[in-house]
TrEMBL record:
Residues 362-466 form the CBM2 domain. Residues 55-347 form the GH10 domain. Gene3D superfamilies: 2.60.40.290, Glycosidases (3.20.20.80). SMART domains: CBD_II (SM00637), Glyco_10 (SM00633). This is Beta-xylanase.
Amino acid sequence: MSAPAGRARRVLAATAVAVAGTLAVGMAVAAPSAAQAGPTLGQLAAAKGRYFGSATDNPTLNNSAYTAVLGSEFGQITVGNTQKWMYVEPSRGRFDYSQADQIVAFAQAHNQTVRGHTLVWHNQLPSWVNDVPAGELLGVMRNHIANVAGHYKGKVVHWDVVNEAFEENGARRQSVFQQKLGDGYIAEAFKAARAADPNAKLYYNDYNVEGINAKSDAMYNMVKSFKQQGIPIDGVGLQAHLVLGQVPSTLQQNIQRFADLGVDVAITELDIRMRTPRDAAKDAQQAADYRAVTNACLAVTRCVGITVWDFSDGHSWIPSVFPGEGAALIYDEDFAKKPSYWAVYEALGGTRTTTTTTTTTSGNNGSGCTATYRVVGQWNGGYQGEVTVRNTGSTATTGWTVKWTLAQGQTVNSLWNGTVTTNGQEVTVRNANYNGAVAPNGTTTFGFTGSSAGANPIPALTCATS
Ligand code: XIL
């Protein structure tokens, strides 16, 4: 595997910087990496024994900016549309895997697991299924499952076997399957899926079942009875198409009660929509919401992973289905990481750092320094940062200066182990009177807290010694 592009550092030649009354000429300045050089969400999740994935759809596979992120950031892919009945069995007995196969091949080429979605669902169901006589529908459903799960045998780690079979009040949805086959159709679907691919984990998947309510109670009772009867079910999928500021308070408790029944739980279609346009306050709330969902999953061992329902706001189903709402994902339309991305990143144990090097190649004392910025923590409206100054020169420093720009309206309020001055957006931190002397290759660290109303990207730093 090649190193991430972000690791490459661009060297800007011959930048002259005035430092503490002396002029250091001929400094080489390395720009901060544009991309995060650290681990991906997929890698962070894997380190916690989970996956972090994204749904995707065929049209976007032609967009190279999109696939660059899809192929690198995620450990898992869900086929967003083209494994649904209308695509794979558009007419009775005629199966077409051409589109879904492209997505599965993409995932395999990028070492990503695949969640299969979905075998039996009332939506995106070709109309011919509605016309199947009641006496033939069980055979048609079994044949569909045998073909589709059989085609992807060994290539799909989870199957959403049945999707959205309950109403909000916990009653069975009156789909064609329910009407013609009765309550037993779900168990029949799971048995057929097990027979077709014995190694795939078999999931029941639904929405508005994230918290404890009448619908999730119905799902709970079904799973419990399947377990008692030996119906092969391995997991439940909580879709988690959520609304800004409305992560259910019982999410973790609900995940736990399913785990206690002996099934896995997956967050299968996460997005958190807001009224558009975005603003900093909504972004901050969304980040808190994504953090809460991630933490709830991490708190329960049997919560095996999280999938976002596509990753970029430009490729989300939300605006077309919920007019006036959107911006529900973790990357913006231009594939820039949003605060919600960083909230997941940090919740999964990632630490945000960047290093900017300003090396004195000729100066008054042969010293130089690097400054490494780390977001220690971030919360709704504020953050804590930390900067480590390293002496890269051959003689001890007598003082150092680190500067950056607060580009998104952030502030630095309280700072320790340094002396801060701000001038508009410019922050300048000089050593305190006790930590200006840093030995060659030694370090000293200062910290601070500040406010951030929304985006709080890692700034580029300059560092100079005296
Ligand atoms: C959505 C897709 O994202 C859209 O492109 C499509 O038009 C409709 O279906 N619950 C599910 C998903 O289980 O299959 C749905 O996906 C979103 C809601």
